[in-house]
Design brief:
Strand order of the largest sheet of chain A: 1-2-3-4-7-8-9-10
Shape of chain B: elongated
Number of domains of chain B: 2
Radius of gyration of chain B: 23 Å
Distance between the termini of chain B: 49 Å
CATH topology of the largest domain in chain B: Outer Surface Protein A, domain 3
Protein name (chain B): DNA-binding domain-containing protein
Structural class of chain A: alpha/beta
Mean pLDDT of chain B: 94
Helix content of chain A: 40-55%
Strand content of chain B: 5-15%
Largest interface: A-B, 41 and 43 residues
Number of strands of chain B: 5
Organism (chain B): Microbulbifer halophilus
CATH architecture of the largest domain in chain B: Alpha-Beta Complex
CATH topology of chain A: TIM Barrel
CATH superfamily of chain A: Divalent-metal-dependent TIM barrel enzymes
Oligomer: heterodimer
Mean pLDDT of chain A: 96
Radius of gyration of chain A: 18 Å
Number of domains of chain A: 1
Number of helices of chain A: 9
Number of strands of chain A: 10
Keywords (chain B): DNA-binding
Largest sheet of chain B: 3 strands, antiparallel
Pfam families (chain B): DUF2063 (PF09836)
CATH architecture of chain A: Alpha-Beta Barrel
Low-confidence stretches of chain A: none
GO molecular function (chain B): DNA binding
CATH class of the largest domain in chain B: Alpha Beta
Strand content of chain A: 15-25%
Largest sheet of chain A: 8 strands, parallel, barrel
Order of helices and strands of chain A: EHEHEHEEEHEHEHHEHEH
Strand order of the largest sheet of chain B: 2-3-4
Helix content of chain B: 55-70%
Low-confidence stretches of chain B: none
């Protein structure tokens, strides 16, 4: 499987509210991330928009429905469509989540939690092998937010991810907000989590906002909180120069507000990546 | 069968049905976590329907729409990998739930057809000149055997209400819907012009001809049917006019 070269830059998600900004102006981002499934269509305007954006910016295809942890295996039609889209767009890379979304009968369209067992590890690795073979490229796997763990868990999530990377050769998309959310919900240490990952395989970091509460929920509907910024600084110092993307999927503000938040990531990364004199 | 298959099937069943018993080794934290996943699932699917069926929602009101969408998701849990398909069959759900107001199901069908046409395969329509040129280039063109290729995403359904008046009256919040019955039955025809889904109302006789041709019938066979209904002289004129309309509306993308 071919390697994925590191890419250092700062990007935003392409959301419908900002189509005109990206099509008509010069948005100061180094890449654009899109939800793959929104463009895995036969034709029409979405693909035309994406092609025009791709002419201006590198694009990352970020999926939410591969169901990489599905015990039923992967959907071959889905893989074929994703491969076709990747062939058209030539993305920096393709990514999805450590989760499952469907059974043979139904699709939840939510990132459902996996038991962290050796049996689940075997299935995830088989599915990633199949996905990378079908796509003809290595992919990035993202750590999810989770709201429950299972009584039969046999390992930590970071050990699970490290094993997946070791066995499949995939790369990691480290979502520091997800680390924070899951740590709040399950009581683990965020520094231990990040240090336990094979950080040389991290190619991208996600930043997002969440809703606090008895169970913290990953909502992508507000700005990044101070604790997640601190975790980002910690992660960037350990990972080195990688791609950073700010996610906002609900209550989407005007583009200048998101760009200002992205500038904060640039500032933190610039500080943490400074070589000491 | 591996253990994860059964575990995921049980989890999905509990996600879809909150009445299901929880596993004996789950505690309150597990139940609370599952409730969040269930809420995420229901919210996402109902919101997907709300996004696809904006006009249907304006027609029936927000609370009635939410009840209908929730009912649809419970009875027809999504199975496709794309959330865009969650609204499949919602017009049938509306037909049952709003049986006394058949215009609701008609608008829901129209919104769904427009939604699908929006992302249908791209295909360039034939102009009248191009159509004539292609036909002329085939020296032995036998019009009897001609088959037409229509725009991808084309959809037809019978309607009893004037959707050409109802559709625009539902374009913004606060407008009074214009609900008018048609004097004669028509079909709504949906397709995409460039990037924009569009629709028109067609008389039944034209719609039946379109449907037959779309399903692979030859021009000769459909014209024979038309002759049976209208007589030869009228049928010849009508068929020529229909073909002209279809070409000018960008409905025909090829012949075979």
């Amino acid at each position: 499987m071919s390697d994925i070269a590191p890419f250092h830059g700062f990007g935003l998600g392409l959301r419908r509210a900002h189509y005109a900004d990206f099509l008509e102006g010069a948005v100061p981002v180094d890449f654009v991330e899109v939800i793959s499934e929104n463009y895995m269509v036969e034709g029409g305007k979405p693909l035309r928009v994406l092609e025009q954006v791709r002419a201006k910016h590198p694009v990352i295809l970020h999926g939410v429905s591969m169901s990489i942890g599905s015990a039923h295996g992967l959907d071959e039609d889905y893989l074929a469509r994703l491969k076709a889209l990747a062939g058209l767009i030539e993305p920096l890379w393709v990514s999805d989540h450590l989760c499952w979304t469907r059974t043979s009968a139904h699709n939840s369209h939510d990132l459902l939690p996996l038991p962290l067992t050796n049996g689940a590890l075997d299935i995830v690795c088989d599915n990633i092998d199949r996905a990378q073979e079908a796509l003809g490229r290595a992919m990035l796997l993202e750590n999810p937010s989770s709201y429950m763990t299972f009584p039969d868990d046999e390992m930590t999530e970071w050990d699970f991810l490290a094993a997946v990377v070791r066995r499949t050769g995939c790369y990691l998309l480290l979502d520091v907000n997800n680390v924070y959310v899951s740590a709040q919900n399950h009581g683990f240490d965020t520094t231990e989590y990040i240090a336990g990952l094979p950080l040389e395989r991290v190619r991208q970091i996600h930043l997002a906002g969440h809703a606090p509460g008895a169970i913290v929920i990953d909502t992508h509907d507000r700005e990044v909180c101070a604790e997640v910024w601190a975790l980002y600084a910690e992660a960037v110092a350990l990972c080195g120069p990688v791609a950073t993307m700010l996610e906002r999927d609900d209550r989407i503000p005007a583009l200048p507000e998101l760009l200002a938040e992205l500038d904060r990531a640039r500032t933190i990364a610039a500080t943490d990546l400074e070589v000491p004199a | 069968m591996n253990a994860l298959v059964e575990q995921q099937r049980s989890f999905m069943a509990r996600l879809l049905d909150e009445e299901r018993m929880l596993p004996a080794d789950w505690n309150g934290r597990h139940a609370a976590g599952l409730a969040i996943y269930r809420n995420n699932y229901r919210t996402a699917t109902v919101e997907a329907l709300r996004s696809t069926f904006e006009r249907t929602q304006r027609l029936v009101g927000e609370s009635a729409f939410r009840r209908a969408a929730t009912h649809h998701v419970i009875v027809n849990p999504p199975s496709s990998w794309t959330l865009d398909m969650a609204g499949e069959g919602f017009d049938e759900t509306c037909k049952q739930l709003f049986a006394k107001d058949p215009e609701v199901a008609e608008i829901a069908w129209l919104e769904w057809a427009m939604h699908r046409a929006f992302v249908a395969r791209d295909a360039a329509p034939l102009s009248a000149q191009a159509f004539t040129r292609i036909c002329a280039s085939v020296v032995d063109t036998n019009w009897e055997d001609l088959r037409l290729v229509f725009a991808p995403g084309l959809a037809l359904a019978p309607v009893c209400h004037d959707l050409s008046r109802l559709w625009p009256s539902l374009s913004g919040a606060g407008e009074e819907p214009t609900i008018l019955s048609l004097e004669t039955p028509h079909h709504a025809l949906v397709w995409r012009q460039g990037e924009r889904p569009v629709f028109v109302l067609k008389p039944d006789i034209e719609a039946h001809m379109l449907a037959a041709l779309e399903n692979g019938a030859t021009w000769g066979d459909t014209c024979a049917t038309l002759v049976g209904e209208l007589g030869e002289d009228t049928a010849v004129i009508e068929a020529g006019q229909m073909l002209g309309h279809w070409l000018s509306q960008g409905l025909i993308c090829g012949i075979r």
